[in-house]
Amino acid sequence: MTGQTAPTSASDLADLYGPVAGDLPQVEGMLLGLAKVEFPWLRRMLEATLGGGGKRMRPAIVLLAGRLGDYDLERLVPMATSVELLHTATLIHDDVIDAAPERRGRPTAAALFNNASSVMLGDYMFAHAAEFVARTGNIRVIRNFAETLRVMANGELVQDMSAYEYSEDVQRYLDRIAGKTASLFATAAEGGAIVAGAPETAVEPMRRYGLQLGMAFQIVDDILDFSATSEELGKPSGSDLLAGTVTLPTLLYMARSPEDNPVKRAFEGTRRTANLQKAVKEIRTSDLLDESMITARRFAESARQQLAALPAGDVRQTLDSLVDYVLERRS
Amino acid sequence: MTGQTAPTSASDLADLYGPVAGDLPQVEGMLLGLAKVEFPWLRRMLEATLGGGGKRMRPAIVLLAGRLGDYDLERLVPMATSVELLHTATLIHDDVIDAAPERRGRPTAAALFNNASSVMLGDYMFAHAAEFVARTGNIRVIRNFAETLRVMANGELVQDMSAYEYSEDVQRYLDRIAGKTASLFATAAEGGAIVAGAPETAVEPMRRYGLQLGMAFQIVDDILDFSATSEELGKPSGSDLLAGTVTLPTLLYMARSPEDNPVKRAFEGTRRTANLQKAVKEIRTSDLLDESMITARRFAESARQQLAALPAGDVRQTLDSLVDYVLERRS
Question: Is A109 exposed, middle or buried (0-12, 13-18, 19+ CB in 10 A)?
Answer without folding.
Answer: buried
